Amino acid sequence: MSGWWFAAGCVGLFLLLWALMERRWRSEAAKLAASRPNLSEDEFLTAVADVSDPDIAQYLWEEIADHWSPATPHPNDDFLNRLSIDPDEPQDWLERFCQQRGYDWRAWPMWDEGRPTTVRSFAGWLAEGRRRAEASA
């Protein structure tokens, strides 16, 4: 019977930690939403048009919008330093982007250490990588 109590305790602890992290995340997103303009989808797509292609901007909107609610994506958001996202999440964005479009993410240019970790910079990096991939094909 003690094994069942241990398992129940582990599940309970996991659920408690998950709820606390979700609450923290929602609090951070609400603070972000209150600290700057929350763009509509069309405003966001226009705001990153100078550094990326429309399909890249649309991809990022779809990847980010649901996760950052109540905030909406903004080109100047520093996704690694402003919100507590998994540091591997941008890699996941890249891999999904490449998989959907038939590119090899391993051939993508490295992210420069000094490059800002903003949504705008990430959109530009995706566009640069795609141009290189298409030029070498």
Q: Can you put this structure into words, describing what you see?
A:
- The chain is mainly alpha-helical.
- The chain has one domain (2-136).
- The protein contains five helices and no strands.
- Helix 2 (41-47) crosses helix 3.
- It starts with a helix and ends with a helix.
- The mean pLDDT is 86.
Low-confidence stretches: none
Helix content: 55-70%
Give the C-alpha Rg: 18 Å
Number of domains: 1
Order of helices and strands: HHHHH
Shape: globular
Averaged pLDDT: 86
Tally of individual helices? 5
Summarize the structure.
By secondary structure, the chain is an all-alpha fold. It contains 5 helices and no strands.
Question: How are the SSEs ordered, and which strands pair?
Answer:
Blueprint: H1 2-35, H2 41-47, H3 54-64, H4 89-101, H5 119-136
List its traits.
about 140 residues; mainly alpha; 5 helices; globular
